[in-house]
Amino acid sequence: MTLAPPAPPAIRAVIFDFGQVVCTFDNRRMYRALSDLCGLPEQDLARRVAQSDLPRAYETGKISSPAFLEGLSALCGFAFPEAAFVRAFTDIFVPIPSTFDLIRRLRPRYRLGLLSNTSPWHAEHGIRTTGVFPLFDAVTFSYEVGAMKPDPRIYRDMLAKLRLPPEACAFIDDLPENVEGARAIGMHGITYPGPTALLTALRALGVEP
Fold this sequence. Notes:
Elements (H helix, E strand, L loop, with lengths): L12 E4 L6 E3 L1 H12 L3 H9 L3 H6 L5 H12 L5 H9 L2 E3 L1 H10 L4 E6 L3 H8 L10 E4 H4 L6 H11 L6 E5 L2 H9 L3 E4 L3 H10 L5
Parallel strand pairs: 1-4, 1-6, 4-5, 6-7
Antiparallel strand pairs: 2-3
């Protein structure tokens, strides 16, 4: 008699990216506020930052918050006051109500994870202050791990915190390359398709909010 292969583990955890999945973000708001502070045009500020390695260094924990501020001040030729800079830098997030509702509905039945490429100031002032943040069982930030999605190390950090195998986890991200990174280590991956299609994709994996 031929035995059927064992069924894959049921999904026991749903892991969310933050930006454009839990909250939208708009860096134009930051550049507008920074422009008001230093007088440089928004487009010039955006170009200078895009050509710099400062954001990636900050989001991988290679430089501190003071060093990041000092570096951007030098880049722009203006000594940004810390409090004003932090307000401009972090006032970019807007909640996605459908995701907030989904997180609250999933919470009683699934473990929840938050996995984000982010920096200390964004984590402190933009993510940890979000209304649903306390509902997550495990949180992994790139600056703490020293690696950014789609590096396998950041996904493995989340799995270790959840104490689950990858095949028991569904991961949601707006960037296809980050979803592929999760799939490469055995997770189920969903590229965020909008609220209605997300529910359909989750139910296809057996996840019932």
